[in-house]
Amino acid sequence: MHVKVLGPGCARCKRLEELTREAALEAGVSVEIEHVTDTDRILDYPIVSTPGLVIEEKVRMSGRLPRREEIVAWLRETAGQAEAAKGASTTG
């Protein structure tokens, strides 16, 4: 699962990356985290302020640090959607 942390590399951005790694372990999902610091690339996403969290190209939040439990839920939801889509493509 591809996850992007959007932000200039500030302390909150780094903390979001740490929280995301912890959440992935708790959720039992494998993630590849990319820290996007380039302003032009950040502006490709509809976020108001940093840090931002993008999971599989879906913006999940911006401008705050979420609780680890929130990130766990987002990761599990995304993993579930991916599994459902995979199952639909193999049965249809």
TrEMBL record:
* Keyword terms, alphabetized: Disulfide bond, Redox-active center
Catalytic residues, chain numbering: 10, 13
List the cysteine pairs that form cystine.
Answer: 10-13
* Every Thioredoxin-like fold domain range: 1-75
Q: What is this protein called?
A: Redox-active disulfide protein 2
Q: Does the keyword Secreted apply?
A: no
Pfam families listed in its UniProt record: Thioredoxin_3
Organism classification, top ranks? Bacteria, Pseudomonadati, Pseudomonadota, Alphaproteobacteria, Rhodospirillales
